[in-house]
Amino acid sequence: PKGLGLEMVEKHPLQNRWALWFFKNDKSKTWQANLHLITKFDTVEDFWGLYHHIQPASKLTPGCDYCLFKDGIEPMWEDDQNKRGGRWLVTLAKQQRHTDLDHFWLETLLCLIGESFEQFSGDVCGAVLNVRAKGDKIAVWTCEADNRDGVTHIGRVYKERLGLTQKVTIGYQAHTDTASKSHNLTKNKFVV
Amino acid sequence: EKKRYDREFLLGFQFIFASM
């Protein structure tokens, strides 16, 4: 309403509180020392305030990551809520940093905070963006790789939200497989 | 009640609160 200060407008609460993490690769430090919690938020308004305050994905230095995880889940395989899970992985070609990366990452964030996966939204742990010289990656992490129904539903909805065509497939990899094999040999547990 | 928001709803708040 006209004349009403923004501070008086009730914010829209999210189903979950989310934590945004930033990883900056410094080879003189351990992996965990390079991982920083930026902030947490639990309303639509605070999400946008944060989103417009930080660098777009495409402007990050290669080697950096953004991670968005539910409060209480750390963005690493070892976390109790991640260790039996896996990730839907979207691998981008180099040129897609300029055409698709920011759009894909924003859609990923909106899927998470909006709880877009119906009854399976509870399976979602978070999402990870890796900016890399050889090609950027975005992944949605879920809690239980053996939950076929939940994992495949999340994959189908996610693929549709990214606007990927039927010709494109994305794969789901269990973290235990990713951790034990070299990257290129990790098999897909599911594909959509 | 679960709080679910579709993308259009979320996007609708993007610029209203961008300067907060």
Mean pLDDT of chain B: 83
Assembly context of the chains: heterodimer
The biggest chain-chain interface is: A-B, 21 and 15 residues
The amount of beta strand of chain A, in percent, is 25-35%
Q: Biggest β-sheet of chain A, characterized?
A: 8 strands, antiparallel
Spatial gap, N to C terminus of chain A? 45 Å
The first-to-last residue Cα distance of chain B is 28 Å
The proportion of residues forming helix of chain B, as a percent range, comes to 25-40%
Largest sheet of chain B: none
Helix content of chain A: 10-25%
Indicate the structural class of chain A.
Answer: alpha+beta
Write the element-wise H/E pattern of chain A from the N-terminal end onward. EEHEEHHEEHEHE
| Total count of strands of chain A | 8
Overall spatial form of chain B: elongated
Write down the secondary-structure element order of chain B. Answer: H
How many distinct helices of chain B?
1
Structural class of chain B: mainly alpha
Mean pLDDT over the full residue set of chain A: 94
Number of strands of chain B: 0
Give the radius of gyration of chain A: 17 Å
